[in-house]
Design brief:
It is a single chain. The protein is α/β, with parallel strands linked by helices and 354 residues long. The chain is built from 15 helices and ten strands. It folds into two domains: 207 residues, 5'-nuclease (Rossmann fold, 3-Layer(aba) Sandwich); 110 residues, Orthogonal Bundle (Arc Repressor Mutant, subunit A), CATH 1.10.10. It is 53% helix and 11% strand. Strands 3-2-1-4-7 form a five-stranded parallel beta sheet, with helices on both faces. The chain starts with 6 loop residues before the first strand and ends with a helix.
């Protein structure tokens, strides 16, 4: 910024969730990096935060439904059934909350006070922008009234796809611009209707913040899931067509020569890989908070729910200790070997030992 004014940025739900997957892509990482570098704030009225979470869950379930259908088709082509690696429905709530927790340092929350509710209701009833003809727009009115509570002298940038609520063409609606000016706010608005990303905002900030524009990151890297990589490397292609009813494979008696153990091990090998990784992470760290450990496992590519189940099993087996808030390593040769196994990955994830 060219002066000492506090900069606030507000992104509507379409921009933040539907387009940028809650700041994970399409300009999201760049925006967060620049806001942090310039000590600017992502302003999130409480009602908008709730909508972020709800829409993230809905978008995640839509993607899950599509992936389930596509993976079922893929299974018939390649012989692999990857559906077991898909998350459960409603997984998006935990993900959204985790992302928002990681952004806590850059987010400025505006609580929904009784005064704001009354002001938004009056605006909506009287049909004043951002109320639109097709929608009473109470939520948008509540967001706007919250925005007007920012400190006088602040600079505010609004990013939205909702032209009916906030724009006349590509410009901010005149009554909204006048209201912001009367509150002492320097407000600029950008529409993402034609470019459904955060890039209209990113390009403006890059020009202003030339000192950091070259260093900002791109979309978050999403590497292949390690369990899936292991599965592809070790499992032969298995037929998915029905067996010939005329072919009857001999069935081994339970417990005979360890056949059952071998079959069981084959079908649980992928989970064993995650068990060993989680055991190694705890053994390497010696003592760590539960949420921090889950975050590391998810960051390494493991699914959140699978990681939780794995840690619970390890605790029940006595391989690690569960104190209620932390996981503790259990000393022994197995812990030492597991810690050595994951050391390169842990150094990459945490920087510890580097």
């Amino acid at each position: 910024m060219t002066d000492n004014r506090q900069l606030y940025v507000l992104c509507d739900t379409n921009a933040a969730v539907r387009d940028a997957h809650l700041f994970r892509k399409k300009g999201g990482p760049q925006l967060i990096a620049m806001l942090r570098a310039k000590k600017a704030k992502l302003v999130v009225p409480e009602v908008l935060r709730m909508e972020y979470i709800n829409q993230f869950v809905q978008a995640g379930d839509e993607a899950l439904k599509s992936a389930t259908k596509d993976l079922d088709k893929l299974k018939t082509f390649c012989g692999y059934d990857f559906s077991k690696f898909l998350p459960k429905p409603q997984f998006g709530e935990a993900q959204a909350l985790e992302i928002l927790a990681q952004l806590e340092d850059v987010i400025h929350i505006i609580p929904t006070t009784p005064e704001l509710k009354v002001a938004a209701a009056d605006r909506s009833i009287n049909g004043v922008r951002p109320t639109s003809k097709t929608d009473h727009g109470y939520k948008d009115c509540l967001i706007w009234e919250g925005l007007l509570t920012l400190p006088e002298g602040s600079e505010v940038i609004l990013l939205s796809r909702d032209e009916a609520a906030f724009f006349d063409g590509e410009k901010l609606a005149s009554n909204l611009g006048k209201e912001a000016e009367e509150k002492g706010l320097d407000l600029t608005a950008y529409s993402t209707t034609k470019n459904p990303t955060l890039m209209p905002l990113i390009n403006v900030l890059k020009e202003r913040f030339a000192d950091i524009s070259a260093s900002v990151v791109g979309d978050l890297p999403m590497g292949d899931h390690p369990i899936i990589r292991a599965h592809m490397q070790t499992e032969p292609v298995a037929p998915v067509l029905p067996n010939d009813p005329n072919e009857h494979a001999p069935q081994a008696a339970l417990g005979e020569s360890g056949e059952l153990e071998e079959l069981f091990a084959k079908h649980t090998r992928n989970f064993a890989l995650l068990d060993m990784k989680a055991f190694g992470f705890v053994s390497y760290l010696r003592s760590t908070g539960k949420q921090a450990l889950l975050g590391l496992l998810v960051k390494s590519g493991a699914a959140d729910e699978a990681s939780r189940n794995t840690l619970e099993r390890l605790a029940l087996a006595g391989l690690i200790k569960d104190t209620g808030h932390n996981y503790l390593a259990v000393e022994g040769p197995a812990a030492d070997m597991a810690a050595q196994m994951v050391e390169p990955e842990m150094i990459k994830l945490t920087g510890l030992g580097s």
